[in-house]
Amino acid sequence: MATSRSGILNFWLVFQVLAACADAHAMDASMDTWSYFYTHLMSIWLNRFYIYSCAAFGIGIWICFQFIATKAKKQDEKSTEKLTPSKVTQDVLINGYTMPKMKEVYVAGVKVFYGSQTGTAKGFATILAEAILSLNLPAEIINMRDYDPDDCLAEEATRKNICVFLVATYTDGQPTENAAWFCKWLEEAVNDFRFGKTYLKGMRYAVFGLGNSVYVDHYNTVGKNIDKWLWMLSASRVMTRAEGDCNVAKSKHGSIEADFDAWKARFLARLQALCKGEKKPCSGNCKKGKCKSKGKQSKEGSDHEQRVSEQENTEVEDLFETTSEEESGAEEDGSRNSVIDVEDLGKIMGHMKKAKKECELEEEAGRTGPSQQSSGKNEESERREMITPGLRDALTKQGYKLIGSHSGVKLCRWTKSMLRGRGGCYKHTFYGIESHRCMETTPSLACANKCVFCWRHHTNPVGTEWRWKMDQPETILREAIENHQSLIKQFKGVPGVRVDRFEEGMVVKHCALSLVGEPIMYPEINTFLKLLHRHNISSFLVTNAQFPVEIRNLEPVTQLYVSVDASTKESLKKIDRPLFKDFWQRFLDSLKALAEKQQRTVYRLTLVKAWNVDELKAYAELVSLGKPDFIEVKGVTYCGESSASNLTMANVPWHEEVVHFVRELADLIPDYDIACEHEHSNCLLIAHKKFKIDGEWCTWIDYDRFQELVQEYENSRGSKTFTAADYVVKTPHWAVFGARERGFDPLDTRFQRKNKTKDISGC
């Protein structure tokens, strides 16, 4: 310790001596050269700590820079090492540097769908899958029964897969049992305007049909239909449809197995070309057998094919018009007519023209009136049938189940939705009907209006009075129930269909008389309503407010609707285009007749943007005239283009616009308030405040109680009456306006369609 202190002391003494010397030399004006260097060295020594700090800081910066540069270089090396040989094809020289070129994956895999009854198509699917696997491509075999196209098919458009369909045609041209649902869904998707013509754009497919040419009328019908429907949704064929024939005498290659082998060889060759990025095979027309510009030719051929497809789509669209059912706005199974085979276009066009001409003749006859008809024509035996042969053919292709000569039934898309536990229609939300037990029908396909938003596009008959042959109401009801049940049966075994709801759906509980036409025109409408009630089926009847006498004479209905599509004479004429010359007076008289009814009554308002949304005060005056129990306000549903209407998507109001309209209308009618909402249908319900009991809305219907009341009414021959307040039930919280669910039943699971376009139709 003493030594350390002595050393420090000596160092300090030396330092002091040197400092004193430095000061002495600095003050000496005659300093020599040695003294000059000595002075600078001493300054460096005195400031050495600053010098050390600067050097350390510089070295630290250099070390950091080297560390970052080394790390970046290692990362680049790792990313380069991850490139497998299958992903690197060739080196490209760019600005003197060699860069690896990435290979694009053109085919991710192949999905082989089969529809088989005897196992032939399934066996072919297995053989094809093994051949595809030998090409080092993934292959998946799919039983069409186990595949839900509603959930999965749209995804095939973005996955770079090739979808192959091996489908057999069964009895009477029908699909096999395991392919029935897939085919039904695909046909309805083509007919449903909400999917759009480009729903499957990007999907690539090939079809091989299995059939027997002995059955000439139905030979390979299923394969043709699937090929056609996929094309109508803008999917792209990778090769022309092929057909295998069980009839050895007519088979191109001697047997259906040989037909398949020949097609398989061509398909595998085409698949290999697709894997290389070839979009279209050479046409074989190049001079000297050499293709000078494959890429250009392929592109031009593809563009030409696309233009042809679009042109054909446009031409077909005018023929296959929309046929949506009004209850759910544009129903899934009928918003357009069934797609017709291109081979039959000429024949079907003739039928459609014939049907149009027959409708025009019917309309003209209706306007001239019975005074110009022969006296014998008034007899039932000499009257014509409402459904002419041309119209019958057109309606059948649209999916209608026709009954007799003037009635029809069709399955509502909400019925199918509720069978699968995906929610009910707005009547379920507003009034508590079970959508899967509701039958959509009409006893009269004829109508006295030609509304601009008609989902039939005016191919149905028109007239101002009944002048056709008439079927008996017992026959109509019996066949309507039978046809409805046959449509429900088609959903047995369909993926997602709930067993309990399928069994319930076989028993009709509700009848919506709103399919098409004017049901109140049917002369035996009262008898038909009584028959419904005797079968414990509730009745929801819709009329277009042109038959005031018939409304007054109408027997009790569970709920009676009047369509109030406009509030002024001018706008009603523009929107409904009625046939009656005194249409406005008839309209007002119909509303007055509605006010006399004791059972539940409803105004149905269809909002058409830029047509009738600015008539609030006039609507309020009409409410005071008819005094309805409820007012349904719904945005118009766009049902596709038609030469009979200039309605476009621009006329469809957004849901929030409908809500805004309803709020303003409710403010003008103090006895009413907003009760319910069904957002998915773009629809709201305004109810009379008498249905708000003890602060809670009671818009739902006690259907069992109604049947008891209507039976008592009939037994007393009309002396024992009842009112709407006698069969009400409390509305559940989720259905009330302002609820978080916005009208969707929480017991069901909401399904969001995987579509490429935003749906604002409200259906």
TrEMBL record:
Transmembrane segments annotated in the record for this chain: 50-69
Swiss-Prot/TrEMBL keywords: 4Fe-4S, Iron, Iron-sulfur, Lyase, Membrane, Metal-binding, Nucleotide-binding, S-adenosyl-L-methionine, Signal, Transmembrane, Transmembrane helix, tRNA processing
Region entry Disordered, spans: 279-341, 356-385
Segments forming domain Flavodoxin-like: 110-268
An example Gene Ontology biological process: wybutosine biosynthetic process
Record's compositionally biased regions (Acidic residues): 312-332
Enzyme Commission number(s) from the entry: 4.1.3.44
Top-rank taxon: Eukaryota
Molecular function GO labels: 4 iron, 4 sulfur cluster binding; FMN binding; metal ion binding; tRNA-4-demethylwyosine synthase activity
Known catalytic reactions: N(1)-methylguanosine(37) in tRNA(Phe) + pyruvate + S-adenosyl-L-methionine = 4-demethylwyosine(37) in tRNA(Phe) + 5'-deoxyadenosine + L-methionine + CO2 + H2O
Assigned protein family: Belongs to the TYW1 family.
Pfam families membership: Flavodoxin_1, Radical_SAM, Wyosine_form
Necessary cofactors: [4Fe-4S] cluster
Composition-biased stretches (Basic and acidic residues): 297-310
Positions with biased composition (Basic residues): 287-296
Function, as annotated: Probable component of the wybutosine biosynthesis pathway. Wybutosine is a hyper modified guanosine with a tricyclic base found at the 3'-position adjacent to the anticodon of eukaryotic phenylalanine tRNA. Catalyzes the condensation of N-methylguanine with 2 carbon atoms from pyruvate to form the tricyclic 4-demethylwyosine, an intermediate in wybutosine biosynthesis.
Organism: Platysternon megacephalum
Domain Radical SAM core: start-end pairs: 431-675
Top enzyme class: lyase
Residues annotated as signal peptide: 1-24
Record-given protein name: S-adenosyl-L-methionine-dependent tRNA 4-demethylwyosine synthase TYW1
Pathway: tRNA modification; wybutosine-tRNA(Phe) biosynthesis
